[in-house]
Amino acid sequence: MKGVVLSLAPHVQIVDITHDIPPQDIAAATFALETAIPHFPPGCIHVAIVDPGVGTDRAGLIIETAHGLLVGPDNGIFTTLIPWEGQFRAFRLDQPRFWRPEVSRTFHGRDIFAPVAGHLARGVAPAEMGSPVTQIVRLTWPLPEYGASEVRGSVIHVDRFGNLITNLRPQDLPGLTHLTEFIVRETSTVGLQTHYQAGNGLLALVGSSGRIELAVPGGNAARTLGVGVGTTVRVRSTADAKPPKQAHEAERQGGTL
Amino acid sequence: MKGVVLSLAPHVQIVDITHDIPPQDIAAATFALETAIPHFPPGCIHVAIVDPGVGTDRAGLIIETAHGLLVGPDNGIFTTLIPWEGQFRAFRLDQPRFWRPEVSRTFHGRDIFAPVAGHLARGVAPAEMGSPVTQIVRLTWPLPEYGASEVRGSVIHVDRFGNLITNLRPQDLPGLTHLTEFIVRETSTVGLQTHYQAGNGLLALVGSSGRIELAVPGGNAARTLGVGVGTTVRVRSTADAKPPKQAHEAERQGGTL
Amino acid sequence: MKGVVLSLAPHVQIVDITHDIPPQDIAAATFALETAIPHFPPGCIHVAIVDPGVGTDRAGLIIETAHGLLVGPDNGIFTTLIPWEGQFRAFRLDQPRFWRPEVSRTFHGRDIFAPVAGHLARGVAPAEMGSPVTQIVRLTWPLPEYGASEVRGSVIHVDRFGNLITNLRPQDLPGLTHLTEFIVRETSTVGLQTHYQAGNGLLALVGSSGRIELAVPGGNAARTLGVGVGTTVRVRSTADAKPPKQAHEAERQGGTL
Questions:
Q1: Residue A165 burial (10 A CB sphere; 0-12, 13-18, 19+)
Q2: Which end of chain A is more exposed for a tag (fewer CB within 10 A), N or C?
Q3: Would you tell me how many other CB atoms lie within 10 Å of the CB of residue A128?
């Protein structure tokens, strides 16, 4: 893909964002793009290919956003970078003259998306390479569930440090105080800390992506707790909380249950 | 190596192709280079160092090809990029004045090949840095074996998705039809599909490198089948095929054997 | 981080050195920087972030050295690139107007160090962005211990080939000869070899970093011996050496002990 881009636009600088997206994991790519792309200069062209549907009739897109031009499959990979209707313009790629002459059905990254990115870098307008569309595929993060006594969130990403990034942001938790308890399986932590070295065992904090994450500083929360993407994170006030099973063994022995 | 190149030629753009070649695996590097380098602009300088023989008397080379200038050890790493005699020019590196003043015997990438690439980028001619040679080391992929009732190929590469890339191309299988069966161990698939999501279990298709590969879409064929580089892939017409052991258990129980 | 740098200084070329530092492993980063940075042109800006103390009161630094400008946390990550007092100038970052407007307490790489690097690339002087300091945190490699009959070193790094890089350099071993024995656990090798393919089993050589390393060519010394960072390496003359337990079993049975 880099060679194809440079063949068309030798002057561009290619910047790698990550080499560590697990195969076929569109959600992991979405999270990586959400954390990285808003920090790039607005004129950049961002190409992202996690594309299990390559060769099917899934569309290819150029999307114009405030974050620059996005190029990739229409499978939701750019979901969190795209605002609501009216605030972006999308084009379904349908002009093969901007693609490689022979297009495989297994590697559109090389055969369609890289050439399209190269032509964008040369100044070709998106509208020349595709037809406007208003409907695009969006992924949905699971939404927090609000119960009578607790909020149930879930882990949407595990980073390379093993930190558990959740679908919860502080604004999702109106009653959030230093007494709020975060429970994963049978382990819990109370209150939000400000930084990783604020504690030793499991702690909760607002990570650099703006989302609440659970971490074991100097360790690996995912491995320590044996959890991953999809795991439920329960949030409740410690005022009316029943102690979780293991973390408060001493209390339970004392008969409070 | 990047620092050494930039010290000599600060204007070049360095592009990483891969960081994932297993230690000492020249064949894996050869495959990565075969799939990437032909897509770069012809004026590029390609440096590749997988070099278990560093410090022995194996030569270092500059090779002029239609794909640009190749720089690295003479151990076959560029095999599939080099056409037959008369269509390339190779130079054995023997002019230490173009190397780092102190050359280690454990890291010629930094001490010889990176400086040579830097000088090439500055415009020094290959012939100034080495003497012409006509014989270079070539790796040989195993060739398909043609038997009375089947063709036997083998897996030459496993990519990061676990797809099994073989030494077979469609032109190697003259009788290839939608009834052709591909057998790995005791699992098989019939016919070539056009893209990954054309099936659920094991399928065969022509991959983006032009070679026939076996894949488990959304899964990992290498792990699922417990196979890897060197595994035999048998190809035969289903007309005269005996069913493999597990895939056709029902038939066999029905007494067709 | 790359996006933040390019937003401030679109003209810079960003070069990745490594993506493989284990989480929180400052010593591994120090070793990677020691081997790479001296080979870059002197005008470069080097940013390195392995930062378990992010969000605490650990300082952030710009350090001016002969190797260029170094930017990162004051946790010893640049230790081996910094000569003794008087030969470098360091500035503790304390001018938030050069940082991102909102500074997280979990990702100073993006919020402080990348913007500072971007401003350096635009020509802002280090002294504008921080106050001079003379004391900075330094890591100490364990020093070789000199005993009556042997020198005890230790493994300070394991590279991706499994080679064991030690804190010993030839100049640390005044009596070094072709009879000197290097012992790891119960395996040993005699003499320094010049290159990897000089032997089959465990061998010792001076690696490209100038340090003595132990390698199993074509294999992985760390895995073969079951050792890692911190393992003791004993060095002694074979003249007065007692044979290690397994390597000289035959001799011992013959009664030489």
A1: buried
A2: C
A3: 12
Whether residue C41 and residue B107 make contact (CB cut-off 8 A), yes or no, is no
**A58 Cβ partners below 8 Å, 6+ apart?**
A73, A74, A75, A137
Q: How far apart are CA A54 and CA C255, in angstroms?
A: 71
The rounded Cα C187 to chain-centroid distance in angstroms is 25
The Cα–Cα gap between C227 and C225 comes to: 5
Instruction: With beta carbons under 8 A apart, name residues in chain A contacting C7.
Output: 39-41
Q: Could you identify the residue written with the tokens 């060679």?
A: A3
Percentage of residues of chain C with pLDDT beyond 70: 92
pLDDT for the residue numbered C254: 30
State the nearest Cα–Cα gap between C3 and chain B, in angstroms.
17
Q: Which candidate from A161, A208, A217 shows the least CB-CB separation from C104?
A: A208
Give one DSSP letter per residue of C196-235, joined into a string.
GGG-SS-EEEE-TTSSEEEE-TTS-HHHHHT--TT-EEEE
Please give chain A's pLDDT, 257 residues, in tens.
999 999 999 999 999 999 889 999 999 999 999 999 999 998 899 999 999 999 999 999 999 998 899 999 999 999 989 887 678 999 999 999 999 999 999 999 999 999 999 999 999 999 999 999 999 999 988 899 999 899 999 999 999 999 999 999 999 998 888 889 999 999 999 999 999 988 889 999 999 989 999 999 889 999 999 999 999 999 998 865 444 444 333 333 332 22
If residue B190 lies in a helix (H) or strand (E), which one and from where to where?
Answer: strand B187-190
Q: Do C105 and A194 touch (CB under 8 A)?
A: yes
Instruction: Show contacts of C195-203: CB within 8 Å, 24+ apart.
Output: C195/B54, C195/B55, C195/B56, C195/B105, C195/B106, C196/B52, C196/B54, C196/B55, C196/B106, C197/B52, C197/B53, C197/B54, C197/B55, C197/B56, C198/B55
Q: Which strand (E) or helix (H) includes residue B117? A: helix B114-122
Answer whether B198 sits within 8 Å of A55, measured CB to CB: yes
Phi, psi of B190 (to 5 degrees): -110, 130
In total, the C-beta contacts within 8 angstroms joining chain A to chain B are 65
Mutate which: C105, C108, C122, vs A, most A CBs within 10 A:
C105
Which tokens go with C2?
A: 């790359």
- CA B71 from centre of chain: 17
Within 8 A of A217 by CB-CB distance, chain C residues are 52
Here the tokens at position C233 are 């390496």
- Judging contacts by C-beta atoms under 8 Å, the chain C residues touching residue A208 are 104, 106-107, 110-111
Is there a contact between B52 and C205 if contact means CB atoms under 8 Å apart?
no
Q: Classify residue B115 as exposed, middle or buried by CB count within 10 Å of its CB (0-12, 13-18, 19+).
A: buried
Q: How confident is the model at residue B176 (pLDDT cuts 50, 70, 90)?
A: confident
Q: Is the CB of B17 less than 8 angstroms away from the CB of A24?
A: no
Tell me if chain C has a CB within 8 Å of the CB of A19. yes
**Cα distance between residue C46 and residue C66, in whole Å:** 12
Q: Which helix (H) or strand (E) holds B224?
A: helix B221-225
Distance from CA of A242 to the nearest CA of B (A): 41
Mean pLDDT of chain A: 89
The residue in chain B having the minimum alpha-carbon distance to the alpha carbon of residue A108 is B208
B9-28 pLDDT, tens digit each: 999 999 999 988 999 999 99
Q: Where are the alpha helices (DSSP H) in chain C?
A: 2-8, 26-36, 108, 114-121, 126-129, 221-225, 249-253
CB-CB under 8 Å, A110 with B39: yes
Task: Determine, for residues A39 and C3 on separate chains, whether the beta-carbon distance falls below 8 Å.
Answer: yes
8 Å CB contact of C40 and B3: yes
For the segment B50-105, what is each residue's pLDDT rounded down to a tens digit? Answer: 999 999 999 999 999 988 999 999 999 999 898 876 789 999 999 999 999 999 99
